[in-house]
């Protein structure tokens, strides 16, 4: 692991390919800053936006999100990207779907919407889903996808559901996304014991989502190695 202009990078060298995982941080502002650093270090064969996603349709925790396209919610992230949808690479999406099916992971397809803040109320999730005709949401993919389009790099999303469409989160977690309100968020948790069981439940759900992503990428890059060896003269 190393830091490049403040961002953590993990790098692996395989016989068939080199892989870099970059921790962007939460939200479109961090995704924009990371994209400026990452794409300047190219060329890249492909870029995958990964992490957690919220469900906007009936789903299960840990279901893999491999959308056909990503669209920004203009009112939230319009300063970073245009309002046009971003199509995911058909080639890499097909490869990702094949691996997900071999791992017997249920898929959430359709459209993913990128928002500028955590949508923590169940009724707001449902409103966003209907307004954007979307099946899932996150806070980074549209920004990363727009940068990939600019640099002509194939782009795909592989995320995992960490919270459900009918689930209201324990509190407004946006408090932890801004330095000015982080202490308020911490104080709210410490002084509101009734939120603790729900926060623990969310932690367990995120662990499930992380496990599913880890299993997916283990198979995905193993498959890439096998394909390269099979195609070698």
Number of strands: 11
User: Would you tell me the structural class of the helices and strands?
Assistant: alpha/beta
User: What is the count of helical runs?
Assistant: 7
Q: Runs with pLDDT <50, length 5+?
A: 228-233
Order of H and E elements: EEEHEEEHEHEEHEHEHH
Overall CATH class: Alpha Beta
Distance between the amino and carboxyl termini: 34 Å
Main sheet, how many strands, which sense, barrel? 8 strands, mixed
Radius of gyration: 18 Å
Instruction: Assign an overall shape.
Output: globular
Strand neighbour order, sheet with most strands = 7-6-9-10-4-11-5-8
Corresponding CATH architecture? 3-Layer(aba) Sandwich
Strand percent estimate: 15-25%
| CATH H level, superfamily name | Nucleoside phosphorylase domain
Overall description:
- With 233 residues, the chain is α/β, with parallel strands linked by helices.
- It has one domain (46-231): Rossmann fold (3-Layer(aba) Sandwich), CATH 3.40.50.
- It has helices at residues 28-40, 74-77, 90-102, 122-132, 141-150, 179-190, 196-231, and strands at 2-4, 7-13, 18-23, 47-55, 64-65, 69-72, 86-87, 107-108, 111-114, 136-138, 155-163.
- Strands 7-6-9-10-4-11-5-8 form an eight-stranded mixed β-sheet, sandwiched between helices.
- Helix 4 links the parallel strand 9 and strand 10.
